[in-house]
Each structure stands twice: as C-alpha cells, then as structure tokens.
Amino acid sequence: MEDEDLTPLFALAISLAYVIHADNKASLQEKARLVTVFGKLVETNVMSDGELESMSQKAFAYVSSNALDAFTKNCMKMLTDSQRIDRKSGVEGKSVDQ
User: Fold this and answer.
1) How far apart are CA 84 and CA 16, in angstroms?
2) pTM of the model
3) What is the pLDDT of residue 59?
4) How far is CA 45 from the centre of its chain?
5) Phi/psi of residue 95, each to 5°?
6) d(CA 50, CA 35)
C-alpha cells in the first residue's frame, strides 16, 4: 500500500484490524465488530455498504502484509498532532512531556 492511500479513516480501520488480529486469528464475529464501528457512516450516507466492505477487507489485508512498526511510522507522517493519541499519556495530541 502506498502512503498516499492511507487516510485517517483507513488508519483507524487498520488499527482496529491490528487489535482484532493480535492473537493471529480473526473470527467472523471479530471482523463484524470492525464493520459495526463504521456502520454509522453507512447510515448517514458518508460511505456505501460496498465501500465499507472494501475498506474492511483492505484493512485486514494490510495487517496481514505489513508490520505494525511500519504502519505506525506511516501514521505518524500522515496524521496531524490533533489526530494522534500520544502513547505516553493516552490524550489526543498531548504528550506527558508537554
């Protein structure tokens, strides 16, 4: 996947896919939870059912072929400070050092 294909929404889907796939297996029920998270976007016509299904499949495919460290580095380049949750503090855009 090219860096320019990574959007904040897709990065969130990939992040959830990494969590779901943390035990190296993902059941249908676990994958359905990812779809549930984004269901409101379908309800409000921000994305179609097909787009949601495609994003979900691409998120799990990304997880299968990319190391978490590489994904994290790509996100750090793409996300703004306010879109990030700092690992040290758990607060959006804030660091313990700030």
Assistant:
1) 15
2) 0.76
3) 94
4) 20
5) -120, 150
6) 11
